[in-house]
Specification:
By secondary structure, this protein is α/β, with parallel strands linked by helices. 26% of the residues lie in helices and 22% in strands.
Length: 419
């Protein structure tokens, strides 16, 4: 059996949704709208589907592949403009082969099969209403999704701090981190692979996939997706440039090692601040511990602890507070083994305690003298907050963020907030 899908090309009422991707790929409770319809057509008996795309057909083709995910044979056909249902039938149903019965033979991606009377692209408010209305029906089709209380849906591998408030109706997708004192709902959707930092509040809002929502950030009557913040009432769009408020989570990448200027600065700081050794010696006297305390760290780039060959030795100064005792690690920056901003070192034993892919992202970036956890005031241990900040930094590193982290740590130190 055959079927046609017409992807929407231009809907002025919701133009902002199509800024970075075709409307057909707009996420709907864990899966793009196009994926939802392909699943419906497969269950209706379709075996071959032609997808007509006038807007960025290469993105559509990349998403559907050959159709294996739905058990279909899919062909993406670029069109100069969006065809009507009648035009599509006249153009493509002239050949042989059985077709699904109308209206499923040609499906215009303006509605979802479960609600043919509910238009998706007439307004941003209508789009949000379609998401909220579809929660209960979409949950059984999403692997691992469960209804933890009436109207509250929670996805697979999602972590929720004890102090989080979830107000029905709300949808929390898979691989989501909700930090302490976060409030989600009512009428709110958090799509897959989202990190919501402590104290943030999402009300009557939508968080797109792979998005970071910063601490104490409020998303109300808005769609936050990557760096874009869309007001669902008036359609205005703002690109947020502060990564500590809103950001885009990309695939894990390893920043380059510290450049020559960074190493030279570390050497200069090592010389200028050398009197700290005398202070440490005085405070360490009588402790029975060596002044330079030997530590072993798991090398970055390893997913789990392996052997001695995957470790390196570094030192801390005894008798000093948590940040000052890192002074010997400036030499590691000079040698190119540490960087100014990265993730803090873990012992092989600590690395072995990292659970799952999210936690193990800690080890995919270079070891840093300072970390995002330092900037956020997290304790130096394997607490949930510290793990989450380390993993978030790993998926979205960059020089701009490094400078902000460095500046925050320095400012806190001068204000007496960092030991």
């Amino acid at each position: 059996m055959k079927a046609l899908i017409i992807c929407p090309a231009d809907r002025k009422a919701v133009a902002a949704l199509a800024r970075r991707r075709p409307l057909a790929l707009t996420p709907y409770l864990g899966q793009p709208v196009l994926g939802q319809v392909l699943g419906f057509l497969a269950s209706a008996g379709a075996r071959e589907v032609m997808v007509l795309a006038a807007d960025r057909p290469e993105r559509i083709r990349k998403f559907v592949g050959r159709g294996e995910a739905w058990g279909l044979k899919i062909e993406v056909i670029p069109e100069a403009r969006e065809l009507s249902v009648e035009e599509a039938r006249a153009k493509y149903q002239t050949g042989g082969g059985p077709w699904l019965a109308a209206p499923n033979d040609v499906y215009l991606l303006d509605r979802l099969p479960q609600w043919p009377e509910r238009a998706l692209w007439e307004s941003y408010a209508g789009w949000q209403e379609a998401l909220v209305a579809g929660m209960a029906q979409a949950a059984p089709d999403k692997v691992g999704m469960r209804e933890v209380s009436p109207g509250v849906f929670l996805g697979l591998r999602t972590r929720v701090a004890e102090s989080v408030q979830l107000k029905a109706p709300c949808w929390i997708g898979a691989n989501v981190w909700l930090g302490p004192r976060v409030v989600v709902g009512p009428d709110s959707i958090v799509e897959d692979d989202v990190y919501v930092d402590s104290g943030a509040e999402i009300s009557h809002g939508i968080i797109g996939p792979k998005t970071y929502v910063g601490a104490l950030t409020e998303v109300r009557d808005s769609l936050a997706w990557g760096r874009d913040l869309l007001n669902l009432k008036n359609g205005s769009v703002t690109e947020v440039t502060d990564h500590f408020l809103l950001g885009e989570l990309g695939p894990p990448t390893r920043p380059a090692s510290t450049n020559v200027a960074g190493r030279a600065l570390a050497l200069l700081m090592l010389v200028v601040t050398s009197p700290v050794v005398l202070v440490a010696a005085v405070k360490n006297a009588g402790s029975g511990q060596p002044l330079f305390r030997r530590k072993i760290a798991q090398r970055s780039g390893s997913r789990v602890a392996r052997s001695v060959g995957d470790t390196l030795v570094y030192y801390e100064l005894g008798g000093l507070g948590s940040k000052a005792r890192r002074w010997p690690q400036l030499w590691k920056i000079v040698r190119g083994q540490f960087v100014w901003v990265g993730n803090r070192p873990l012992s092989p034993e600590q690395a072995g305690q990292l659970e799952g892919e999210f936690d193990q992202l800690w080890l995919t970036v270079p070891i840093g003298l300072f970390s995002l956890a330092d900037a956020m005031g997290d304790p130096e241990d394997l607490s949930d907050e510290t793990r989450a900040h380390a993993s978030f930094y790993a998926v979205d590193p960059g020089r701009h963020k490094d400078l902000k982290i460095f500046w925050r740590v320095i400012c806190h130190a001068f204000r007496g907030k960092v030991e």
